[in-house]
Amino acid sequence: MTQPRKSRPTPPRAQVRALEGFCHAVLLAAGADEATADAAVSAMMHGSRLGVDSHGVRLLDHYVRALRGGRIAAAPKLRLVSETGATASLDAGHAHGALAAYTAMDHALRLADQFGIGAVAIRNTSHFGPAGAYAIRAAERGCMGLAVCNSDSFVRLHDGAERFHGTNPVAFAVPVAGERPWLLDMATSAITYNRVQLHRSIGADLPTGVASAEDGTETVDPDGAAMLAPLGGLFGFKGAGLAGMVEILSAALAGMRFSAEILPMSGPDFATPREMGAFVLAIRPTAFLAEDTFAQGVHRYLAALRGSAARPGATVMAPGDREWAEEKRRLAGGVPIDPETERAFRRLGREYGVEPPFG
Amino acid sequence: MTQPRKSRPTPPRAQVRALEGFCHAVLLAAGADEATADAAVSAMMHGSRLGVDSHGVRLLDHYVRALRGGRIAAAPKLRLVSETGATASLDAGHAHGALAAYTAMDHALRLADQFGIGAVAIRNTSHFGPAGAYAIRAAERGCMGLAVCNSDSFVRLHDGAERFHGTNPVAFAVPVAGERPWLLDMATSAITYNRVQLHRSIGADLPTGVASAEDGTETVDPDGAAMLAPLGGLFGFKGAGLAGMVEILSAALAGMRFSAEILPMSGPDFATPREMGAFVLAIRPTAFLAEDTFAQGVHRYLAALRGSAARPGATVMAPGDREWAEEKRRLAGGVPIDPETERAFRRLGREYGVEPPFG
């Protein structure tokens, strides 16, 4: 017998400033040092501002658990353990992944100032958060930025029948004179695991080519989805290959764990550091050609792209266009808070004596 | 009335050494200098050895036309026009694309020796050929290599209805101690245009999600395919985003033409240089960590990958495994020559007085 569907109340919305303040206060109260709280809030707010809610403030509760359990160091010592020319290895000392990644990108940018390019491999880091946040850091300082990280294994190989790679994102950002950056931030799987959970909750079939049952065969049933498919469907060897590139840059170049070796993000062990790696790269266009030539080229490309013919009823967008439009809406109208995050915020607010950022 | 299908004769096969010698002699006879002939043969043979026939010796006839027409400089002057730290811009002087790319990668490797990483943007180059050939050059010298290039526009944007990007390949190679390199070499479109032509010739439908009619809507009819789809099907914004990254690194960073601006590879103008850009990057793992740690990590990853569960009846492979196996077969049994290439070789052989590499 089906239950009549209850009408869902409108989710509460939180203003960006209030949300930032709440997350920052909770992290400090949970023991994080200022640098950790700043970085974690900055990364989560990148997700929550741009509409990438899987990597937004819903992660606050998870980060508090990881900080309190000891998995993430609350007051980490980050240090460069090797420096060779335009490259470095950063031992993040089990820092929050955002602090590690911002620190690494800031160093890559210093290297790019000096050498035209800078690359930093990160050791002993934790959950990366939104890769785009660190790529954007480069673009805000006039450089192209690449940020990649491997992660818990959820994704089968092409023709594979077990979880092997993580959703292993690739983020690439390009500065655009007078505009927000060009920003690609993509999982190398077809979809994310959150999308499977969403389809479960609304009882809708998945698209074809995005998930597999335990034996690796295709399924569109979200309840039967045991693993994700690599990007590309029939051509999933491409998505799997890109995931492998991320795996090698993140784990092999840092001497850290491959996706299938990482302790699960969801616990139950929240005490043991996850020993993850990640990789960031900054490229300074002005090392290669005149600033104007580059800026004009990017503008010419984007104008051609945005003016190109679209399918009937559709719109053509550059990577990031959708996100910057969403950011504008959210800066004006606030960030929607899902029910689970609302409950967690009320609990964290009570526990740490911080007022939740909604009524 | 259908004609009875004629049984097709077995295609002739050419031994690798004989094929190399033939291509080299024809290019020299067509006016190419030694460096151009060496590079062009090396790149074409990468394709023909590894089974990537679209970028193999079938290109010889095209390159002869481009050399004789003047589009490609037969005796180019390549020079570094800017050098900043670990980066450089190479003006290839309208050289053959393979000479430009190998020269750029060799310089990137020198930079990586000194700085741990090296990046070279290439200006005034021509048809790139197999991106993997240049990435492999890095891996053969102990570095990771990235090679990208934009190309004639055949691929629509996500939700687009016109040819905008090229098939814009991404090649990434990783050295594997004691083995052939890990090698990803992928178009950022779902399939290549050659694949459409193949389906036309055999009268078979295309897979879904790979091609579009003139208005951008999906088609599986190879005769109705006016453009290719970006990699990813429903998630084609990912393939289009990757193509955009290639476009920016190749064209914007070199001040060169975007895909939609490039003169068509197929002519009719074979006199005007195409003013294309490309980009190569070399990363030296030993700048980041001990050689053994890196080598053991890559081995551990590959062993886990090759030993992981496969779908019923399938095999899991690392990027490049299929190609290295094909290379072994072709080194032993020769390279199959398609009928059109056979005809072109007989014609070129007569014209330049060079014996074709098959009976």
Record the strand order, biggest sheet of chain A: 2-3-4-10-5-6-7
Percent helix among the residues of chain A? 25-40%
Please give the CATH class of chain A.
Alpha Beta
Distance linking N and C termini of chain A: 37 Å
Structural class of chain A: alpha+beta
Average pLDDT, all residues of chain A? 95
Q: Uncertain segments of chain A of ≥5 residues (pLDDT<50)?
A: 1-5
Largest interface by residue count?
A-B, 82 and 82 residues
Helix and strand succession of chain A?
Answer: EHHHEEHEHEEEHEEHEHHEH
Q: What is the gyration radius of chain A calculated from CA atoms?
A: 21 Å
Oligomer: homodimer
The total tally of domains of chain A equals 1
CATH architecture of chain A: 2-Layer Sandwich
Indicate the CATH topology of chain A.
Ribosomal Protein S8, Chain: A, domain 1
Shape, principal axes of CA atoms of chain A: globular
Number of strands of chain A: 11
Strand content of chain A: 5-15%
Name of the CATH superfamily of chain A: Malate/L-lactate/L-sulpholactate dehydrogenase, NADPH binding domain
Helix count from the secondary structure assignment of chain A: 10
Main sheet: strands, sense, barrel of chain A:
7 strands, mixed
